[in-house]
Amino acid sequence: QVQLVESGGGLVQAGGSLRLSCAASGRTFNAMGWFRQAPGKEREFVAGISWSGVRTYYADSVKGRFTISRDNAKNTVYLQMNSLKSEDTAVYYCAGSSSYRPQYSDYAYWGQGTQVTVSS
After folding, report:
1. 3-state DSSP call for residue 72?
2. What is the pLDDT of residues 60-86, one digit of tens each?
């Protein structure tokens, strides 16, 4: 059974930091990503990372503030979030894909999400 389990969400003041983790089990993924969904909005891409970790991709809104990384020995992907803003408030989801450069529809496996709330 394939599972993705996120952790690390919570309440933080604007300007603060959080580190999200996503532990995968049951299989490994060529690419992994973080997405988020704010109330009343569509789910959006935040960051993605290749198997080796050499290639990383970020939404413009988080570039320079968020860093995605992975530890393949632990089958875990991380999202370090710094300089958080109120507009970063959302449920954050991790996802895994067999594709090397996946589009949204290529992410077949999803976690249950973790809430991040940034107070201003």
Report:
1. coil
2. 999 999 999 999 999 999 999 999 999
